[in-house]
Amino acid sequence: MKGLMELYNREEIESLFNESRLISLLMNKYQLKPKEKTMNKNQILVEEGQENEQVYYIKRGIVGFTQDENIFGFEKEGHFLGLETFLFNDVQPYTIVAMEKMEVFIFVKEDIMDILMGLQEGWLYLYLLNQAEQKRVQKSCLHLHLKGSNRSKKMLIDLAKNFGTIDGQAIVLPGCFSKKTVISYFGLSFNTGKTLLEKLQREGFLLPPSKEKQFRINKEYCQASLYSENK
């Protein structure tokens, strides 16, 4: 695997074999017929510690990743769930839960693995998917080593970049990112998190909420963070 990886960089592999191409390949060339299902908010897709023989493709909606009931990450439409454990075993290391009403395609994992393992790019794709999963967990751990205010700002900026939409001077998070959800993502108690959010609003990092009580992150902070990362 390492020898193959040396022939490609990440961008080359993703251009050859990304999730958009994979879903097209499965549905069109190989004509797999996934089960289509609507998941309700808070419904569990895969439970921590259980054997996972299915692969989900998020057609619409957002899921949360939880371990020991603590949220440590999220994913949105256009992504597969359930392929990232192939290098280890079929036991799910964390729970995946619907953050809102969503639509998914459900495949049999064995069917997808048979196809991917017959393709050189498929092996590379699975390897990179596993690496991305490890980085997700590592990033969560790094966040938790930051101190209160810096941790919350960094985590909110990441959410804004991945899930937010621009509305004037704000980047607005979807409604499923409630105060309770975001504070759980911070890894704080509710009262501590509530006090911290009030502080961020006084500082202007968070803009006054709309009637829907959505998180509105000051766009300037996100742009400054992006500029810093690209330097």
TrEMBL record:
Domain of life of the organism encoding this protein: Bacteria
Protein name: Crp/Fnr family transcriptional regulator
UniProt lineage: Bacteria, Bacillati, Bacillota, Bacilli, Bacillales
Ranges for domain Cyclic nucleotide-binding: 36-117
Native source organism of the sequence: Listeria booriae
Database matches in CDD domains: CAP_ED
Pfam (any one): cNMP_binding
Keyword vocabulary terms for this entry: Activator
Annotated InterPro entries: cNMP-bd_dom (IPR000595), cNMP-bd_dom_sf (IPR018490), RmlC-like_jellyroll (IPR014710)
